[in-house]
Specification:
alpha+beta, globular
């Protein structure tokens, strides 16, 4: 089974909701609505995480609980992954693709 890690970067708190600073977090929240999963806080990783299977692929969704300018504090992982980058202009809205 293929595995994917989807990390939605952003800032915590409602102040940054639906802003260009939170497009990554907003993407994770849209995926949460579409695929009905629960994000659980993992304090040691300073993140919320969920692990789901979508179309026979293991997908780990993560969104940090700390501000963007502090994210160098996040733990580093050595995980063999195929990296894909998806970016969409905030003005055009979010695009969720699997």
């Amino acid at each position: 089974m293929s595995s994917f890690l989807v990390v939605g970067l952003g800032n915590p708190g409602s102040r940054y909701s639906n802003t260009r600073h939170n497009v990554g977090t907003d993407f994770i929240l849209e995926a949460q609505k579409k695929y009905s999963f629960d994000l659980k806080e993992k304090k040691t990783l300073k993140s919320f995480l969920a692990e789901v299977v979508i179309q026979d692929k293991k997908v780990i969704f993560a969104t940090p609980t700390i501000f963007m300018n502090q994210q160098s504090q996040l733990q580093k992982f050595e995980i063999p992954l195929e990296v894909h980058c998806h970016q969409q202009s905030h003005k055009l809205g979010l695009s969720l693709q699997v």
